[in-house]
UniProtKB/TrEMBL annotation:
Annotated InterPro entries: Acyl_CoA_acyltransferase, GNAT_dom
UniProt organism field: Arthrobacter liuii
Pfam families for the chain: Acetyltransf_3
Sequence ranges assigned to domain N-acetyltransferase in this UniProt record: 14-158
Name of the protein this chain belongs to: GCN5 family N-acetyltransferase
Top-rank taxon, per record: Bacteria
Amino acid sequence: MTFLEPLTLTGRHVILEPLAEEHHDGLLEAAMDGELWKLWYTSVPAPGAMAAEIRRRLALQEQGSMLPFTTRLIDAGTGSPGRIIGMTTYMNIDAATPRVEIGSTWNAASTQGTGTNPDSKLLLLRHAFEVLGCPAVEFRTHWLNHQSREAIARLGAKQDGVLRSHSRTSDGNLRDTVVFSILDHEWPAVRAGLEYRLYRRGLGA
């Protein structure tokens, strides 16, 4: 058994299930909701590149450095899995520490601000801290992606620093990467904050 094997995580609003090639059409539809591949500050596959992105993530899973998920809505009426809305991953997996990064995440534009993202993060963080025993979980984003930086900070993550000229974007420009993390002793407060956000969402707040 490896440190991380494919699994399904079920929350209040979303189900995270192991990424599979048959999710292609649903993921394509989700990416077209908002034409997310046109956003310069994030990396969402264009319609013609979705199949290659799925294969890339599954190849990294085989290598043991990524565990990719497909994100589905939970049907409010039946409680069963609904439509596909995006992708997320455990990445840069370090089994020895153990430590993971949560990243390569995107959701359909129509679902943003509906509670799907905090629910997804709660599932991934809970599993990382309470099942895998990680002493820390990491998040990274583009310095110029202010929306992502604010969302990560709202989770309760602390900014560790900035890796300047850290990597190149798909258009060849150098990217400064902001690194955040949550430590295991901070997790109870972060969990309480996420659970409260989901509780308020359930009340329509």
